[in-house]
Amino acid sequence: MEFIIEIGDENQKQLIEQELKYVEAITETCSPDLNLRQLIVASNFEAKINAMEGVETYKAERGINPGDVLVAAKIVKVDDGFAIILSPHLFTDMHDIQTRCFVVLHELSHIVNRLLFPPIPNDSMISYQYLYHLYGMYDEYTSDRFAYNLVEDSFSSKSSHWNSYPNKQCQWGLSSHH
Ligand SMILES: [Zn+2]
Question: Rounded to the nearest whole angstrom, what is the distance from the C-alpha of residue 106 to the centroid of ligand 1?
């Protein structure tokens, strides 16, 4: 797995990579193999996703009012597996190691779900739409639960960022989903 850290000076890049090393440890023990090829901290999150997906339409901002919700991470399909793209916002004082960990674990769970979920049958548009949204909700729900439980179990003392995070998540969840 390759770490691509596009933000910070040399010392900061090293600290970020050190913090994210646990992802490598998780993927090495994972079965089925997640085929996680890259973990990228992008200097420009939207531009990176658009470039990697070959589109121009990806927007990180969601919700009814501008700035309501800012997507912080996304998985992208690459040739022989997946990449996780992280927003530089995760490395500002809006976040700390515990909330960053939640975001990364949530994305890892999305990859597991991608590998385990059955393909959506395409025989009827109505059932496709129904199942597509049902899968989407289940995907977000299980990913949140997985990440939440693991962060709760991994850090014996919880930060103020973490303690206020579920509240923020709920407020975001009411206005949008990602
Ligand atoms: Zn998600």
Answer: 6
Per residue in 111-169, pLDDT tens?
999 999 999 998 999 999 999 999 999 999 999 999 999 999 999 999 999 999 877 66
| Å from CA of 140 to ligand 1 middle | 5
d(CA 41, CA 71): 13
Do the Cβ atoms of 108 and 151 come closer than 8 Å?
A: no
What are the tens digits of pLDDT across the range 29-45?
988 899 999 999 999 99
Whole-number Å distance, alpha carbon 157 to ligand 1 midpoint, is 25
Q: How many CB atoms lie within 10 A of CB 9?
A: 8
Q: What percent of the chain has pLDDT over 90?
A: 80
Distance 108 CA to ligand 1 centre (A): 10
Whether residue 178 contacts residue 69, with contact meaning beta carbons closer than 8 Å, is answered with yes
Closest of 177, 160, 146 to residue 63, by C-alpha: 177
State the distance from the centre of ligand 1 to the C-alpha of 7, rounded, in angstroms.
Answer: 23
Binning pLDDT at 50, 70 and 90, where does residue 97 land? very high
CB 154 within 8 A of CB 47: no
Cα of 110 vs centre of ligand 1, distance in Å, is 7
